[in-house]
Amino acid sequence: MTTLFFVTFLLLILVELIKGLSANGTPPILQKFAWQMDLAHFMWSNIRMFRIVLAIALVVFASQAMAVAPVAVVLGTLILGAVWAGIYWVFNHFWVGQVKFLPISQKVFLGADENKVDPQLQVVGVERDGVQKAYPVNMLFYHHQITDEIAGKPIWVTYCGLCRSGRVYDIDVDGEPLEFSLVGAISFNAVFCDSRTGSWWRQETGEAAKGPLEGRQLEDVAFEQMTLENWLAKYPESSVLQYDPAFVGKYTFLAKLLNYEASLPGWHRQETPPLVIGVETGGAVRGYDWAELQKARMVMDQVGETPLLVLSDAAGTSGFVYDRRIDGAALEFEWAEDGVRDLGTGSGWDDFGRCVSGALQGKQLVQLQSYQQFLRAWITFHPQTTFYAF
């Protein structure tokens, strides 16, 4: 019975460790397996049952083992109990998403004239029915999610630091908005749990991967990612989310991290994945190496049936993807010293797809949804992607 007692105690510790590591502090090697989601959801859903069953078994085995090896049982209980308690505390009160990354406690939006956020910071910007709002990426990096409303409709603005990817969704499901809490990271991507059904949702795709709503898909909300300076140049009437005073230190550090001016412990041992600009149109998927696009400044491409114009701004901070058709005809462009010009009319175009001079002045290219994120995340969730050859 003494052997069974120790084996059961070790099993209890192992179960607690697997549950914790399956979605928090997960080793990179585990993040690469498709079954990580299955393992994590199974462990998180059944951990209470495992604890109860194994605890009952421990009591039974301990009561019988005390008759033959009382000292070993007492010492084993103290030592292994401390190990289990330490693991439990780490993965339930310290190294767990909803504790490490607290939700925002106040949301204050200011216009451009009163804004206090650094204009060089990246923002996720949303325009809907004539209303524009900007959400600083370093704030989203920390909180992972900010629930808001725009033009009277609920939206969920998300960002995953492991993917460097922003996504925005309409969270009205069956006539009622969902509320989410952060679970952890699976397949290098943030996973959330909704409070209504307990379903688990992937940040990258907006899909319910596990739970009662498995298979449901949140509706995408169009957004743009660029510097706040560029966003306000395009949308001068936009409001900007200001820093929550409770987390200024976190935001400041993450702003440096995003600019590669700071690092987290151990990150110097890991190779930073390259960034890509990704676009999906008409069922075709293409990725553009962000470092190469910054050098080229302009790329003309054809993805599926859609002729594209892909741009980087002069500072190399913001990327833009446009359908380069005007009135049904695809334009050809060249890079000139003063910006982009179309070869047909010599008209000049700005980074926002607006014709600012020449015969086509006043025309506007249609902007396509694009995503700036790490290459590994783009490939993981878009395995059919192709890449532009610079």
Structure explained in plain terms:
- It is elongated, with a radius of gyration of 25 Å.
- The chain has a five-stranded mixed β-sheet. Strands 4-5-6-13 form a four-stranded antiparallel β-sheet. A four-stranded antiparallel β-sheet has the order 9-10-11-12, covered by helices on one side.
- The mean pLDDT is 94.
- The chain is 31% helix and 32% strand.
- Helix 1 (2-21) packs antiparallel against helix 3.
- It contains ten helices and 29 strands.
- It has 390 residues and is of the alpha+beta class.
- It has helices at residues 2-21, 28-31, 36-65, 70-94, 97-100, 137-143, 228-234, 248-258, 290-296, 375-381, and strands at residues 109-110, 122-128, 131-136, 145-150, 153-160, 165-170, 172-173, 176-177, 180-186, 189-194, 200-202, 208-210, 219-220, 224-227, 239-241, 275-281, 284-289, 298-303, 306-312, 319-323, 325-326, 329-330, 333-336, 339-342, 348-349, 355-357, 366-367, 370-374, 386-387.
- Strand 10 and strand 11 form a beta hairpin.
- It has three domains: 2-95; 109-258, no CATH class; 275-387, Rieske Iron-sulfur Protein, CATH 2.102.10.
- The N and C termini lie far apart (68 Å).
